[in-house]
């Protein structure tokens, strides 16, 4: 099975969105360079960010998100973001009425079930877990192998925390990688077992 990786862009004070669920400048680094990150050409980053991010994105087989993010994005209109093959949504509610059962979205009642389903779908590829409340729950359950952060030079002051409502200490190794891009610092840590 592939690694389970918690990931997001994050402010230097630890937030993935403001109080109104807006990321503000957290994704500005994705348009701060001259190297296309995907086929659309809309995302252009520095060469250092490309060399770090593109290989990681190419390894993702499934992404886990919470129902809140799913609802905020309107389920990405049934098309997983960034070319991801599958999205697993952690929710205690049924799938939305009229939802296309053929869309590559899967609904799980709890983080353990979500990780198991995502690993099944991803095979030996990476399972990405969106940072925030669900990511924090997966970390607290001991199911995260690695933490990746794209630290952006902004202080949001308040909002949605990268690790959600984690209330216990969790030790990380490293950092295993520290890469400086334009307007971003990419960090990668292994979770200590």
3D structure, described in words:
The chain is of the alpha/beta class. The chain has one domain: 3-Layer(aba) Sandwich (Dihydrofolate Reductase, subunit A), CATH 3.40.430. The protein is built from four helices and twelve strands, in the order ββββαβαββαβαββββ. The longest helix is centred in the N-terminal third of the chain and has 13 residues. The chain is globular and about 40 Å long. The two termini are 17 Å apart. The model has no long low-confidence stretch (mean pLDDT 95).
In short:
This protein is of the alpha/beta class and 193 residues long.
Task: Assign the CATH architecture.
Answer: 3-Layer(aba) Sandwich
Count of individual beta strands: 12
Percentage beta strand: 25-35%
Structural category = alpha/beta
For the structure shown, list the relevant keywords.
193 residues, 30% strand, alpha/beta, Deaminase, 4 helices, two-stranded antiparallel ribbon, Dihydrofolate Reductase, subunit A, single chain, globular
What topology emerges from the helices and strands here?
Layout: E1 4-11, E2 15-17, E3 35-36, E4 44-45, H1 47-59, E5 60-66, H2 67-72, E6 86-90, E7 105-108, H3 111-122, E8 126-130, H4 133-140, E9 146-152, E10 160-161, E11 177-181, E12 184-190
Parallel strand pairs: 1-8, 1-9, 5-6, 5-8, 6-7
Antiparallel strand pairs: 2-10, 3-4, 9-12, 11-12
């Amino acid at each position: 099975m592939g690694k389970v990786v918690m990931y997001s862009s994050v402010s230097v004070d630890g937030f993935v969105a403001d109080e109104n669920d807006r990321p503000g400048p957290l994704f500005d680094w994705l348009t701060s360079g001259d190297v296309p990150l995907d086929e659309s050409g809309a995302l252009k980053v520095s060469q250092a960010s490309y060399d770090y991010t593109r290989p990681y994105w190419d390894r993702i087989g499934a992404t886990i998100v919470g129902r809140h993010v799913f609802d905020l994005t309107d389920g990405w209109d049934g098309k997983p973001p960034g070319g991801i093959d599958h999205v697993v949504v952690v929710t205690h509610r049924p799938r939305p009425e009229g939802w296309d059962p053929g869309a590559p979205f899967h609904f799980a009642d709890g983080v353990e079930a979500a990780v198991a389903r995502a690993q099944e779908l991803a095979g030996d590829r990476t399972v990405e877990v969106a940072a925030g409340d669900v990511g924090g729950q997966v970390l607290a359950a001991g199911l995260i192998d690695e933490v990746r952060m794209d630290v952006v030079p902004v202080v949001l002051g308040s909002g949605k925390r990268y690790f959600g409502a984690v209330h216990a200490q969790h030790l990380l190794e490293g950092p295993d990688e520290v890469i400086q891009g334009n307007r971003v610092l990419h960090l990668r840590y292994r979770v200590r077992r």
